Amino acid sequence: MNGACHCQTCALAGGPGRPAGKPTIVAIVGPPNSGKSTLFNRLTGLRQKVANYPGVTVEQRVGKTRVAHGHEITLVDLPGIYSLTPGSEDERIAHDVLTGRMPGMPKPDAVLIVLDANLLSRHLMVAAPVLALGLPSMVVLNMADELSERAGQVDVEALSEHLGAPVALISAAKGEGLGPVLEFLDGKLHAAAPRLDRALLNDIPRCRLWAQHVGSQTWKPPSPPVWTQRLDRIFLHPRAGPLVFLAVVVAVFQTIFLGARPLMDAVQALVDVSGAWMASEIPGEALRSLVVDGIWAGVGSVVVFLPQILLLFLFIGILEDSGYLARAALIADRTMARVGLQGKSFIPLISAYACAVPAILATRTIENRRDRIATILIAPLMTCSARLPVYTLVIAAFIPERALLGPLLGTRAAALLCLYALGFLAAVATAGLLKSAILKSERTPFVLELPPYRRPTLRSLGLRLYDRARVFLTRVGTIILAVSILLWALANLPLEDGARPPIERSYAGRLGRAVEPLIEPLGFNWKIGIGLITSLAAREVIVSTLGTIYGLEGDAASVSLQEAVRRDLSPAGGLALLVFFAFAMQCISTIAVVRRETGSWKWPAVQFLYMGTLAYAGAWITYRIAGLLGS
Amino acid sequence: MLQLVFSTSAAREARSKASGVRTLADLAEGEAGILAELDLPEEAARRLMVLGFLPGNRIEAGPSAPGGDPRIYRVDGAEIALRAETAACLKLASDDQDAHR
Ligand SMILES: Nc1nc2c(ncn2[C@@H]2O[C@H](COP(=O)(O)OP(=O)(O)OP(=O)(O)O)[C@@H](O)[C@H]2O)c(=O)[nH]1
Ligand SMILES: [Mg+2]
User: Fold this and answer.
1) Quick check: A282 and A485 in contact, CB under 8 A?
2) What are the tens digits of pLDDT across the range A545-591?
3) Are B47 and A447 in contact (CB < 8 Å)?
4) For residue A330, which residues of chain B lie inside 8 Å, CB to CB?
5) Minimum-distance ligand to the CA of A142?
């Protein structure tokens, strides 16, 4: 029924049987969300992202594993596929690697086909064309734990007989049943040529009949996932569903703002104490100033936000691991449809709450290219975690804490919530604009497979937080450290009569003064100007920059960063600064990844100018209105 | 074995209004039906077929997003969400007394 598919598969199926010897490059293939990355992580000890929704892995990832006698094998984790005819970018990648067309990637010489044992007969439809490639293959039935919990059964030997390939029943998450997989990797399990009728490959209905037949002979389907159906009755209830959603959002923001406080105060105390200790121990005024006022004041003011960011990631982790994220995409589909996108675009947008870079990669699951570009263009408007320190600092400086909904929601958390909503609305409005003007396209059908709900494990949440903390600290130790040192130098030069100049007359000060006329209409002075310039490297750098500047002014010890900010900004200017950061595209890595994913400089340039204009205009309007209301 | 009708969207709409054929979109939560035909362009139909939306297959309607659209459909033990506009292109076999729960 499909010409292109037909020819391709014939060419692929022509390969010979098993090459002699042990495999060296083994690809892990299978339908989305079957646990491929979990198995890959088990075997290699790496930490490829795992989450409970289809389309988590969007590019190939290579890792090494050692089987008996030190024989080393390269494993390749691939994006999930529903068939060998690629529809979206991530499916194309899996297809290209499997067929040896991926540049810089040798063709795999064996395949692990990972299927969800709970969906065996439907997943066999994916296994068939892969088996027909003629590579030595093992069919790995994953989620054995869920299968037995739900009283399903599978006859591994009979299945192996039907398929003509070795079969293993495992639980990748628990690490059970991996023995046969390791034997296969070691080249010990020999397979007869896969017993497949080639004719059924290009005929989907026939392929399904075959899969159903094999399934009925070898597999007792598990009982329906009762818990998933029960939970969906709540989460997708016409009235209760949205209410639960709202309650969760409010609780999350309140926790991020207030719950993180004690921990942040503790980190702050540590930074203060160690700073004071260094100030008393380090000899030489210049060195002491560099370390204490330059580095420690800058880096320390950002490190303080670690607990808050980890808390945010904990919530995102629970959302992703439980399976609720796919439901959220379902609920959001109507809104997204109104602006011309579809529910699938919602998943990258939610991951953009962590960081725009992985979110932009995640758009690869969107089949329609124009929809994909539109999603890439709006993703950086979503509130990423790098904005959180800026928001928290400015909100705490200008907005007094009062209860709004009793202990449930305070004014500060509400302000934070408003900023997140502002970013989201701007993203959605921009999408509407793009889709009605330059990126029009025919509506593509929204098709989303919903995973069963799963309980997030402590281990996986813990690993997420650990990895996130490492990323954050690496950023602090590289970008932020480098900018702090550079800034310290710029703020101390040129020497006047061999001594440090007042900051206004230093190079940094002159830079700030130079941009001051441009930003004065927004209510920002030259110190904020310096921060806006340095924050082009990364948003949170403005916090470390202000930390360094105030450190040099000699106030750091006596005044908190918050109070110092309050002296330099009017409340109206503070609000304008928040709006500016909500819209501006101050992130070099995002620009680079947009360039890579769209293949030209055109889109990142358009995006940078658009977001910059939005930021400037938004901040100006905010400053004006807030000024009028305040006076 | 496989009856696919390739048509433009305008023609498709006109036809589905004219005929009284029941489609997947007419199923209420908990109801099931046997799929007869996918009235969609080839590429879209192929994508749905690999997910199990095949003529002759039994499909049960599950819960929907608040507002009734999109809705979850249960196919071969999996749950797949479709928009009403897509579901309306998947026609059911008229003879489905025994598919009704
Ligand atoms: N109960 C159980 N859950 C598992 C098992 N293996 C994986 N999972 C869960 O299944 C979900 C999907 O796992 P992934 O490894 O991300 O699946 P994947 O095949 O790489 O998915 P894509 O990259 O989206 O194609 C995660 O929530 C895992 O924790 C298992 O053996 N038992
Ligand atoms: Mg994966």
Assistant:
1) no
2) 888 888 777 654 556 788 888 888 888 999 999 999 999 998 888 99
3) yes
4) 65, 70, 72, 81
5) 1
Ligand closest in space to the Cα of A453: 1
Cα A27 to middle of ligand 2, angstroms: 12
Query: Nearest CA to CA, how far is A192 from chain B (Å)?
Result: 27
All domains in chain A, ordered by first residue: 24-222 (3.40.50.300), 240-263+330-387+398-434 (no CATH)
Please tell me the distance from the alpha carbon of residue A159 to that of residue A139, in angstroms, as a whole number.
9
Q: What would the two tokens of residue A467 be?
A: 């990895």
Q: Which residue's alpha carbon is nearest to atom 21 within ligand 1?
A: A33
Do residues A376 and A363 make contact, with C-beta atoms less than 8 angstroms apart? yes
Facing A330 at nearest CB: one of B44, B49, B81? B81
Asked whether the beta carbons of residue A333 and residue B70 sit closer than 8 angstroms, the reply is yes
Cis amide linkage into residue A502, ω under 30° from 0: no
Question: Which residue puts its alpha carbon closest to atom 23 of ligand 1?
Answer: A57
Q: Enter the tokens of residue A534.
A: 């340095």
ipTM over cut 0.90: no
A28 CA → ligand 2 middle, Å: 10
Instruction: Give DSSP secondary structure letters for A356-397.
Output: HHHHHHHGGG-SSHHHHHHHHHHGGGS--TTHHHHHHHHHHH
The SS3 of residue B3 is coil
Q: Which residues pair with A110 in a beta bridge?
A: A26
Asked if omega into B70 is within 30° of 0 (cis), the reply is yes
How many angstroms separate the CA atoms of A286 and A258, rounded?
A: 38
Distance from CA of B24 to the nearest CA of A (A): 14
Q: Report DSSP state, residue A291.
A: I
Size of interface A-B (CB pairs under 8 A): 115
Rounded CA separation A306/A57 (Å): 27
* Pair A44, A63: CB distance under 8 Å: yes
Backbone angles phi, psi at A576, to 5 degrees: -60, -40
**Residue A72 and residue A19: Cα distance in Å, rounded?**
17
Q: Does domain B9-92 have CATH number 2.30.30.90?
A: yes
* pTM given for the model: 0.85
Buried b (16+ CB within 10 A) or exposed e, A51-83: bbbbbbbbebbebebebeeeeebbbbbbbbbbb
Q: Does A140 sit in the ligand 1 pocket, CB within 6 Å? A: no
pLDDT tens-digit readout, A305-343:
899 889 888 988 998 999 999 998 888 888 888 888 877
Domain boundaries, chain B: 9-92
Give the minimum alpha-carbon distance from A82 to chain B in angstroms, rounded to a whole number: 7
* Cross-chain CB nearest to A118 (options B62, B77, B86): B77
